[in-house]
Write a sequence for this structure.
């Protein structure tokens, strides 16, 4: 009896294989052959789930977005606004191995987005979503703040910068340092 394979589960496992190849060899190391081998599939089997390499890359990039969005949406409310805001921000930062892998893959994809229109659309949508989250967090902390736009942009830059630093210099941008920077920022905002 043939084994029944859940197509969405298989697509997710292929995306995870893409992530591993990207982290090991960069996006230049991603090909149908390398991803298929990493996923334990034949290239022909991989094409059953993804018609093109571009489709594989877009799906793998979308998976990063979906995972981050799910974590942010799962943050439990807290009566202390600053605590709730801090928890959301922490879900956006690479504070553990899983989130570090996402950030490394994300950075590779955003670099490729400069020349790939499909990835560029995903990158732009994700940055718009991050800006929206920063707006919501700023509004929660500083309702009706006259400098709202600048504060949203400052929080956006803080998160984006910490992610970039953590990927580029993980020895310096440690989870403890990132948490301390976020705590200081939130303390200054709420004085």
């Amino acid at each position: 009896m043939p084994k029944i394979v859940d197509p969405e589960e298989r697509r997710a496992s292929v995306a995870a294989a893409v992530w591993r190849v990207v982290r090991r060899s960069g996006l230049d190391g991603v090909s149908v052959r390398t991803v298929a081998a990493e996923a334990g599939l034949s290239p022909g089997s991989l094409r059953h789930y993804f018609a093109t390499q571009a489709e594989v890359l877009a799906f793998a990039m979308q998976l990063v977005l979906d995972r981050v969005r799910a974590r942010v949406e799962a943050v439990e409310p807290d009566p202390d606004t600053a605590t709730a805001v801090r928890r959301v921000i922490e879900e956006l930062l690479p504070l553990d191995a899983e989130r570090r892998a996402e950030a490394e893959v994300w950075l590779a994809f955003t670099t490729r987005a400069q020349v790939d229109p499909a990835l560029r659309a995903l990158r732009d949508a994700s940055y718009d979503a991050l800006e929206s989250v920063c707006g919501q967090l700023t509004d929660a902390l500083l309702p009706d703040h006259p400098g709202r736009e600048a504060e949203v942009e400052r929080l956006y830059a803080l998160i984006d910068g910490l992610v970039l630093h953590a990927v580029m210099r993980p020895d310096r941008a440690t989870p403890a340092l990132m948490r301390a920077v976020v705590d200081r920022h939130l303390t200054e905002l709420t004085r």
Notes: The domain at 7-189 is CATH 1.10.357.10 (Tetracycline Repressor; domain 2). The chain has one domain: 7-189. The chain is about 75% helix and 0% strand.
